[in-house]
Task: structure prediction
Amino acid sequence: MPVIYNKDIDDQTILAVWRIEEGEEELLSGLQLKQHELDFLASLNNDKRLLQWLSTRLLLRKMLNTSDYIDVRMDEHGKPHLVNSAYSISLSHSYDYAAVIIGREKSVGVDIEQIKTKIHRIQHKFLSDPELEQPGVKDNTQALYVCWCVKEAVYKWYGKKGLEFRRDIHIQPFTLQDCGEMTVIVNLPEGTRTITVCYFNTVPGYMLGYVVA
Result:
């Protein structure tokens, strides 16, 4: 399993990215799945989606360094969690790559995306006018994907329905880098939070954002 990135964000948090090169049988051989998981896989009519689902679970298992069954469930908001575990997790995948972040004590969120120019067509759906007016954002594909990945990571970090990218997640002015961080103000039902979100190019053509807070 080619793990292309593996980093201890801090002493409580691990982030890893894996290039999906294995087929279904090889991925299945490394997992212990219950009937409800097998039923879910059987319902998928997209082979790529199936490989992505399997790869995030196998990467999670390797990061936890265990041969025991890992019970990953979705809560009522669709946020994945480990049953009977103190760890917080977030999973993401895009085409041939999967990303997993694991944290203890703090909540985590991660998003990986393949960079495509089509994002320009939807920029007004996830960025407010002040965000688009920031220098170097509106006409820069890389910057737009940074903004998308950062907002998606924040959305997963919060993990509850009702948060809207354009209305509730506000990116403060930033200078685009290959690997950087930005300040984000999030309007939550319980109050406003100011958090730091990190981003970087994982491999050429892919962007990743993550948050630990």
